[in-house]
């Protein structure tokens, strides 16, 4: 029994059972505005939002995601969803609905059960047609969602951890490692036509950095033509189509 457990590898990846069939029709991908939280964890529990670091990490997340998508043979649509949301409240509502739909689907994908590596490509979850508005407005075949949480501890919190570590060492002779910062990212690729959740992965790192995104996306399967020289892949020109009507 022990040997069986030792030989079983688990993964955070959730991949649609028909991923490779869907990807045949996915050429252009639009990146939704990353949902980012970066905070200072304090001794009192009243954490402080680190807005400057949040803005920097948001930008880095998009750039890293673009690079990984191109590396996998996809093309990235240059479409400013944030700007469109500012101009069109109905569109902003639709974008928020996509996030809400994904939160519900996440419960289905991550139901508390571990998934073995060989079982990761057997999922069949969908957000439904709610994603259509984003994909159609951007002229994209799929939408990439990014969710990021990062933290760093305040000096008071670090001092508390050190004191607790010293006490533990005195009592047990064991030195506990304590991180002063960390991050976690979740990346999801959604089919723009059907809303099918094509691929999801989540990774964490003991650093406050956007680089964890590259680690998570390194497991994203490429297109059927990914073997070609991806350095020749060009971005689709910025979508300049007029805004969709309010009842779109």
User: How many individual β-strands?
Assistant: 10
Provide the residue-averaged pLDDT. 83
How many independent structural domains? 1
CATH topology: Double Stranded RNA Binding Domain
Question: Can you count the helices?
Answer: 8
Specify the helix fraction band. Answer: 25-40%
- Unreliable stretches (pLDDT < 50, length at least 5) are 1-5, 165-177, 227-248
Describe the secondary structure blueprint for this structure:
Elements: H1 2-6, E1 10-11, E2 14-15, H2 19-23, E3 28-31, E4 35-41, E5 48-49, H3 51-71, E6 75-76, H4 81-87, H5 89-109, E7 115-116, H6 132-138, E8 142-153, H7 155-172, E9 181-191, E10 197-205, H8 212-217
Parallel strand pairs: 3-6, 3-8, 4-8
Antiparallel strand pairs: 1-7, 2-10, 4-5, 8-9, 9-10
Short summary of the structure?
The protein is α/β, with parallel strands linked by helices. The chain has helices at 2-6, 19-23, 51-71, 81-87, 89-109, 132-138, 155-172, 212-217, and strands spanning 10-11, 14-15, 28-31, 35-41, 48-49, 75-76, 115-116, 142-153, 181-191, 197-205. Helix content is 36%, strand content 21%.
Can you offer a commentary on this structure?
This protein is an alpha/beta fold and 248 residues long. It has one domain (13-221): Double Stranded RNA Binding Domain (2-Layer Sandwich), CATH 3.30.160. It has helices at residues 2-6, 19-23, 51-71, 81-87, 89-109, 132-138, 155-172, 212-217; strands spanning 10-11, 14-15, 28-31, 35-41, 48-49, 75-76, 115-116, 142-153, 181-191, 197-205. It starts with a helix and ends in a 31-residue tail after the last helix.
């Amino acid at each position: 029994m022990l040997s069986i457990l030792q030989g079983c590898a688990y993964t955070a990846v959730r991949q649609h059972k028909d991923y490779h069939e869907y990807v045949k029709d996915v050429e252009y991908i639009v990146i939704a505005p990353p949902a980012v939280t970066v905070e200072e964890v304090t001794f009192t529990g009243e954490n402080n939002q680190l807005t400057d670091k949040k803005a920097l990490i948001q930008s880095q997340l998009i750039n890293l995601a673009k690079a990984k998508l191109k590396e996998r043979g996809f093309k990235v649509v240059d479409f400013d969803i944030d700007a469109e949301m500012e101009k069109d409240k109905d569109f902003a509502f639709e974008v928020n609905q996509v996030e809400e739909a994904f939160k519900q689907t996440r419960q289905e994908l991550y139901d508390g059960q571990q998934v073995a590596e060989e079982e990761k490509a057997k999922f069949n979850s969908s957000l439904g047609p709610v994603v259509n508005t984003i994909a159609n407005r951007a002229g994209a075949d799929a939408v990439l969602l990014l969710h990021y949480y990062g933290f760093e501890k305040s000096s008071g919190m670090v001092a508390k951890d050190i004191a607790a570590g010293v006490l533990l060492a005195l009592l047990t002779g064991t030195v506990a490692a304590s991180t002063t910062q960390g991050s976690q990212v979740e990346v999801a690729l959604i089919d723009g036509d059907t809303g099918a959740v094509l691929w999801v992965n989540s990774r964490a790192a003991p650093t406050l950095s956007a680089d964890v995104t590259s680690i998570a996306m390194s497991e994203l399967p490429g297109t059927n033509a990914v073997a070609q020289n991806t350095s020749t892949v060009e971005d689709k020109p910025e979508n300049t189509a007029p805004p969709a009507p309010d009842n779109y």
